[in-house]
Amino acid sequence: MGALPEAEIRAFLDKHLERESDALAMQAMAMYQAGQAEQAIATLNQAWQADPQNPRLPMQLLEILVAQGQLDDARKVIDALPAEQRETDTVQALQARLTFVDLAEGAPDIASLQTTLEQNPDDSEARYQLAIQLLVNGQLEPALDALLELMQRDRTYKDDAARKTLIQAFEMLGNQGEVVSHYRAKMASLLY
Question: What is the pLDDT of residues 9-28, one digit of tens each?
Answer without folding.
Answer: 666 666 666 678 888 899 99
